[in-house]
Amino acid sequence: MSIRIKQLNKYYGDYHALQNINLQVPTGSLTALLGPSGCGKTTLLRIIAGLERADSGELFFADDEVSNLHVRERRVGFMFQHYALFRHMTVFDNVAFGLQVLPKRIRPNKAEIAARVHELLQLVQLDWLAKVYPQQLSGGQRQRIALARALATRPKLLLLDEPFGALDAKVRKELRQWLLEIHHQLGITSVLVTHDQEEALEMADQIVVMNQGKVEQSGAASSLYDNPENVFVTEFLGEVNVFEDACIEHGQLCLGHYHEPITTGEKARQNVAVYIRPQEIQVLTHIQDNVIASACVEEIHAIGAQIRLWLRREDNNQRIQVWLSPAEFRTLSLQSAQTVWFRPQRLTMFRLPEMVDYVI
Ligand code: ADP
Ligand code: MG
User: If pLDDT is split at 50, 70 and 90, which confidence band does 306 have?
Assistant: First the structure.
């Protein structure tokens, strides 16, 4: 079921917590609301769920305006970071709860409930734990049971608020893949709140980057990562080196010794900030044309699929992060304290103060 939000606003007293939010969530997609703590993600999710009311704006599920629909009538499943299971109930009873509290006319009978609970426990691969109590479960198992509970009433929407936030990194990574499989298997529409950009990039079909109550940019993960529209999105979505000593003059971008023709309508010199992702920096062991500067190799972290280097630029001492593939690293055969030269393979720039951007 698709979600459409138009011009939505929410205030807490004088505080404008959500500002003119417009958003579309396609049916069957997994959309991530991504942003720093306090930007309004949970508030937006709670408004979608019907746990909170917006002050203005419209909210549609498919073609129906649902702003006045009670939470029980919205057919959404929730899972929160601290959505504790009922301690005094077995896993089975926790999962069955949502069905047992349905109004009598639509409540399944006892046998149907039991069948549904076992089906859900199989889905989350914990059928063998039906009779145990929550204290006997690991953190990861608890969240899997919480998901089974959220799905009990066959919701059309699944709303997840930092569901794995309290778990350790390894379990979190496993559960992400597991949740993604379930999302696809059920064909459900899901909205995931997270402040973790890696989680959003790994899981979401669509990412909505939020900041201070506003949507900064939304789109497919790759389009946001490669074509960020502003400084906030550039910096929030992945690592990036910022070069503030750049300018545009005489139709050229100039950064250190690097020049690149660009078309701008304006003739006057403008200062710009250039953003280059660590994997978009080319390292050279001999000086060549059109390098930004020379640098000293300060640190080499040669572990895993990505070799991470820190360079120290020799003209201004700036530290620069570079990621190489093991093959590139072997070809260069870099040593600590060696002098190298570097240039961009791809860059994004923003005028200072931020106005228009270019990607080269
Ligand atoms: P996030 O989930 O992105 O961390 P929230 O949606 O929880 O952010 O909160 C957004 C802002 O609204 C925060 O500044 C928070 O302090 C404020 N806020 C959230 N809930 C309430 C509330 N019930 N009363 C007053 N302020 C609130
Ligand atoms: Mg939150």
Answer: very high
